[in-house]
């Protein structure tokens, strides 16, 4: 049964059950109270009249001993007699049984054949007999007095009240059900939207988003969370697709080199030096592919994990000094002078990755420099972190290319012509490393004058108290 | 047939040039977009092989500027295989489109096809009188019998046959049969023509004095 699994139906079921219980409880109590009240009133009236009848059976005041035995018929005034009158069919009645069990006097309104009650000593006893309410009592004189009244009207009234209560209860119940259904529908309606969107997304359309009706409600919160998830999924997929496209694009050229070189070399017999040339070209292409694959793997690792593996306290100055020392031979080969000016600057990070980032920036500054040019590397410490500045006197980056230098596989035209061994991933990797460390990287360049990279890293906070790596 | 190769990847450029020369084409090379555009507008090439990703001027711009002055058949080489890139290339005036990495055989076949189409031919075999020239196999038959030709002789015959009925000037022949690096003597052309006449009969190639040569 499908609707037993629907939250809306289940809500409705529980809601209906609860409502029915509450209504029934209230209705029954109200009805009982009303009935008990009426009975009390009737009993009170009966008691009054019982007293009257009993008093009339007692010897009159002033009658001394030896006075005639009390009459078997009450003697009372007209006002007292009025008490036994009432609406037709509702009059009070009385019956008196003599000491010997014979029925004595009875009022005219008394119904016929009233069974003689059992004689129970003590206070008056009340009983309900069909449509009659009766009270009986043994007088000290030994008679049994019974006073009663037809309460058919009250019973009918009580029944009417029960019907009324039941009817209005039913109406309230239906109204409550309808209201509950409406509220459940309203409360659950955003879920339908969420379901529809999620279904579209599951078929592959990741651009879909849930439109939260009320962003402060729990469902609004859920929708926001889901939207965030979808956005991240979407971004991840788009990044992945772009990455794959770029990677295959970049790998196509070296593969083409290998294919054409080998096909052309194998097409006919050739002198040994031609084979050597072809093999050398294939080797260059294969090396380029290897470099690219390594870079791709590094980036893929960055894409897949959130934080750098091992965070520690490290001194940026030490990292920079070491990286520059490694690049000195390259700088000498390119006839580029490197000046280093560092102040100790503690930051939190992975020393190996930071060294890679620094190496990429300084390596680029050397590679794209002019012979006799210079690279200035500077580490400063500021209140909120460490700042690395790498300025070169190279060819600069054209303004059109500047916003794209951190994009994967992006190479400015001049950079492309400057050398094929660079994969176009170095700055992407650098940026990924810096951002994983919560830092930022900026670039400024003036064509013909040079390029300046500025890396800002957060000061060590979390790991304060530890001794920095490489510190004395 | 003379082809211009515009490709910035040096190893690819050299291997393609070698392979195309071995196929009998005269090949000029350009390593960037500006050089490629300059050469392609200066010389009447029979076909241009144009890479999309080029320094200085990319393949799209080279094609766009080339089409302002010349209708040279262009085969674009690209590493992008998305359909929209192919559509863009063809719409921009490229005659064909080849995605890297490709097989040399396919490149040759596509080049033959665009050169053939540009010359108004629809099939690979051109028949002139009793001479059948198979441009795909680069073989010539005279009355059903194979005739051995040197690469240069074949190129000359093929070029004249492609422009059948037209008088082809000596300048045009020099432009289409020799690449920029070849330093050929002017009388070589007459030597090739005379050799062809010896092998295929004297009536095939007519000399139009002061104009050039013609295959009727």
How is this structure best described in words?
The complex is a heterodimer of chains A (472) and B (216). Chain A is of the alpha+beta class and 472 residues long. Chain A folds into three domains: 2-60 and 68-157; 227-301, Signal transduction histidine kinase, dimerisation/phosphotransfer (DHp) domain (Helix Hairpins); 310-458, Histidine kinase-like ATPase, C-terminal domain (Heat Shock Protein 90). Chain A is 52% helix and 16% strand. A five-stranded antiparallel sheet of chain A has the order 2-1-5-4-3, with helices on one face. In chain A, strands 7-9-10-12-11 form a five-stranded mixed sheet, covered by helices on one side. Chain A has a two-stranded antiparallel ribbon with strand order 6-8. The longest helix of chain A has 51 residues, at 7-57. Chain A is rod-shaped. Chain B has two domains: 2-118, Response regulator (Rossmann fold); 125-215, Arc Repressor Mutant, subunit A, CATH 1.10.10. Chain B has a five-stranded parallel sheet, with helices on both faces. A four-stranded antiparallel sheet of chain B has the order 6-7-8-9, covered by helices on one side. In chain B, α2 (33-42) runs parallel beside α3 (59-67) and α6 (151-162) packs across α8 (188-200). Chain B is globular and about 50 Å long. The two termini of chain B are 20 Å apart. The chains are: A alpha+beta (472), B alpha/beta (216).
Summary tags:
heterodimer; A: 472 residues; alpha+beta; Helix Hairpins; Heat Shock Protein 90; 3 domains; five-stranded antiparallel β-sheet; five-stranded mixed β-sheet; 12 strands; 52% helix; rod-shaped; disordered C terminus; B: 216 residues; alpha/beta; Rossmann fold; Arc Repressor Mutant, subunit A; five-stranded parallel β-sheet; four-stranded antiparallel β-sheet; globular
Tell me the layout of helices and strands:
The complex is a heterodimer of chains A (472) and B (216).
Chain A: H1 2-5, H2 7-57, H3 78-82, E1 92-97, E2 103-106, E3 125-129, E4 132-138, E5 144-150, H4 152-202, H5 218-266, H6 272-304, E6 312-315, H7 316-333, E7 337-342, E8 346-349, H8 351-367, E9 374-382, E10 385-392, H9 413-418, H10 426-436, E11 440-446, E12 450-458
Parallel strand pairs in A: 7-9
Antiparallel strand pairs in A: 1-2, 1-5, 3-4, 4-5, 6-8, 9-10, 10-12, 11-12
Helix pairs in contact in A: 2-4, 4-5, 5-6, 6-10, 7-8, 8-10
Chain B: E1 2-6, H1 10-22, E2 26-30, H2 33-42, E3 47-51, H3 59-67, E4 74-78, H4 83-91, E5 96-99, H5 104-118, E6 125-128, E7 131-134, E8 139-142, E9 145-147, H6 151-162, E10 168-169, H7 170-177, H8 188-200, E11 205-208, E12 212-215
Parallel strand pairs in B: 1-2, 1-3, 3-4, 4-5
Antiparallel strand pairs in B: 6-7, 7-8, 8-9, 10-12, 11-12
